[in-house]
Amino acid sequence: MKDKKPGKTKLILVFLSLTSIVIMLFIPMKQAVVFEYQNKGEVLAYLPIKENGFFKIKYTHSIHLSDVVESYKVTEKSYIKLYELTYEDFAIGMPENASNGEIFEQKDGKYYIKNMNRIFPFFDLRLGEVRANHRIISEGEEYPLSYYIEPGTWVRIKAKKINLIEALKGVNILGQ
User: Phi/psi of residue 23, each to 5°?
Assistant: First the structure.
């Protein structure tokens, strides 16, 4: 009589292989700042980032035509913390002072609000079509968002771990 163990071994190997593939495809593994289409969850682009990493969003203010830089940190719970704001003009749309616990400074013709502790699960942004020229800054490198996302698009920005499927659907900003 033949022993059926070789067939069982093959079946177990196939099962383990399929399970490994499913895990690799669907289990979130890579921390990123994700740009999703509106509030639909469709990943348009992402920026791989270290755990508890930092990034900035820089844009040209539509009225003042000067740069504004918002500095963010990804928290342990994958929220986004705004911790600093830098700008050059005090007019329409810009804060005139710091809130409770924050520090307001003026240095070299720029205004800084530091020690901010504004935490968001996500925030929305309409990518500028005319002047804004939104850029994301990571590790000293600037990446114009209009290279990856069509200007005028409403995006939801969040920090989260993405899986391989999401990574393949979106554009890796660092990979361009």
Answer: -60, -45
**Whether 135 contacts 144, CB under 8 Å:** yes
Residue with tokens 């035509």: 65
> Phi/psi at 167 (nearest 5 deg)?
-65, -40
Question: Per-domain residue ranges for the chain?
Answer: 29-175
pLDDT of residue 110: 93
Of residues 154 and 29, more confidently modeled: 154
- Residues in Cβ contact with 95 at an 8 Å cutoff, skipping those fewer than 6 apart: 85, 113
Burial 102-137 (b: 16+ CB within 10 A, else e): beeeeeeeebbbeebeeeeebeebebbeeebebbbb
Residue 176: predicted pLDDT: 59
Residue 40 buriedness (CB in 10 A; 0-12 / 13-18 / 19+)? exposed
Entry pTM:
0.84
Q: Give mean pLDDT, residues 93-117.
A: 91
pLDDT, tens only, 106-147: 999 999 999 999 999 999 999 988 889 999 999 999 999 999
**CA–CA gap between residue 176 and residue 174 (Å, rounded):** 6
Query: What's the distance, CA 7 to chain centroid?
Result: 47
Q: What's the CA gap between 79 and 118, in Å, rounded?
A: 10
